[in-house]
Design brief:
Layout: H1 10-20, H2 38-44, H3 49-65, H4 82-85, H5 88-100, E1 123-127, H6 153-158, E2 163-167, H7 180-188, E3 192-195, H8 219-227
Parallel strand pairs: 1-2, 1-3
């Protein structure tokens, strides 16, 4: 709220937040954060003790239900590790969820879905800074999966048995340097072209907003060249 000039200090922010019903501050790495001023607000009479109890009660109720205060042996989740989380059963469930989820696409002339049986003898080109760069595929607050479980568009399509050619065009999402000649060469020899564009956390994330929704750098030029 300080950044939006709604309040002028952490103390004012703590008072306004608690009175409005906020009971949890998301902060880290700050010794002097907003809610450390609650005790001062309480002493000044800007927050009542009953209100503070009302705000704290659901927090500890939830933490108790989650088992945070139980011995580790009582928590069935404490024994789970990556061998369980990344098990074939869980990975297959993730795949099913991805297949059954929806995307907004204009399916001109029934191009989609791409099926392995239809790609035999087809030459695919996978291009763009998101085509084969695992690092940029995950957004803000994303998990950190084991590298062997990360499938880029290029890697996934190669598993279909199709003849796949690849060029990034630009090595990172900001796309400051664009290898147009290489892209035109790869795209020109293909029957099907998949252009993988976007932003990623290098370009936008929490506290790193943009003033417009345009593709960064030369990405729009890359797309236009691929279509042309």
């Amino acid at each position: 709220m300080l950044g939006h000039h709604y309040t002028h200090s952490f103390l004012e922010t703590a008072i306004a937040s608690v009175n409005a019903g906020c009971n949890l501050e998301l902060s880290y790495g700050m010794r002097n954060n907003v809610f450390t001023h609650i005790s001062q607000a309480l002493a000044m009479g800007n927050i009542t003790l009953q209100m503070l109890r009302d705000r704290v009660r659901p927090l500890f109720y939830t933490r108790m239900r989650l088992g945070e205060f139980d011995p580790p042996a009582m928590n069935p989740y404490s024994s789970l590790d990556l061998s369980v989380v990344q098990s074939p059963e869980h990975r297959n469930l993730s795949l099913e969820a991805a297949v059954k989820s929806f995307v907004l696409l204009k399916n001109v002339r029934g191009t989609l879905p791409l099926r392995a049986r239809d790609l035999s003898g087809q030459h695919l080109a996978v291009v763009g800074p998101f085509a084969d760069n695992p690092r940029v595929l995950f957004g803000d607050y994303a998990p950190v999966p084991e590298p062997q479980y990360i499938y880029t568009p290029r890697r996934g399509l190669e598993m279909l048995g199709a003849n796949v050619s690849f060029t990034a065009g630009c090595s990172e999402p900001r796309c400051r340097r664009y290898a147009r000649a290489e892209l035109v060469k790869v795209v020109g020899a293909a029957d099907v072209v998949l252009v993988c564009l976007g932003t990623g956390v290098d370009v936008e994330t929490e506290a790193k907003d943009r003033s417009d929704l345009s593709l960064p750098g030369h990405q729009l030029e890359l797309l236009q060249d691929a279509v042309q």
